[in-house]
Specification:
Length: about 170
């Protein structure tokens, strides 16, 4: 996508559009899906929606992946006891979904698995099925976490379950 088109997509994005796709009810359902998934595993899952990047970020050609890694660090998703935190990052203006996983779960599941889940979520989003895509992605990531880090009865919640809206 040309930088000119990208710039205008970000300029025209607004909180109204973001709230249309990710209403309070949708965000509550996402939070419940994260909490339900974390009952089955010892991992930590965070969900972040960002409507648009700043003009400075666009000027410096920050990609959705770069921003996702920055948010992963900012929210300290990496700071879990077993290094098994996972971030789902949605950049609405670019229509991109990125998954950033901490080293323990990333080594187990691998880049191809995360990429496939991202593309599936994006497929739902293209059909304006934001809730279905989000919950499906959370369930698939939770299944990976449950496979490699099954619940053992002593799990504590190290990260909030509520989605973050930037």
């Amino acid at each position: 996508m040309s930088s000119f088109k990208r710039f205008f997509r970000h300029i025209w994005m607004s909180p109204i559009i973001r709230n249309r796709h990710f209403s309070r009810a949708t965000l509550s359902t996402i939070e419940a899906a994260v909490a339900a998934g974390e009952i089955k595993h010892r991992g930590q899952l965070r969900f972040v929606v960002e409507a648009e990047l700043t003009t400075s970020q666009l000027w410096h050609a920050v990609s959705a992946r770069q921003r996702a890694i920055e948010v992963f660090s900012m929210l300290r998703v990496w700071d879990t006891e077993e290094n098994n935190g996972v971030l789902i990052y949605v950049l609405l203006a670019d229509r991109k979904v990125e998954i950033v996983a901490d080293r323990s779960i990333h080594q187990q599941a691998g880049e191809q698995r995360w990429h496939a889940i991202c593309r599936e979520i994006e497929h739902h989003y293209r059909k304006a099925a934001f809730l279905a895509g989000s919950v499906s992605g959370i369930e698939k990531i939770s299944a990976e976490l449950a496979h490699y880090f099954p619940a053992n009865g002593t799990h504590k919640n190290e990260q909030p379950d509520s989605p973050v809206v930037l």
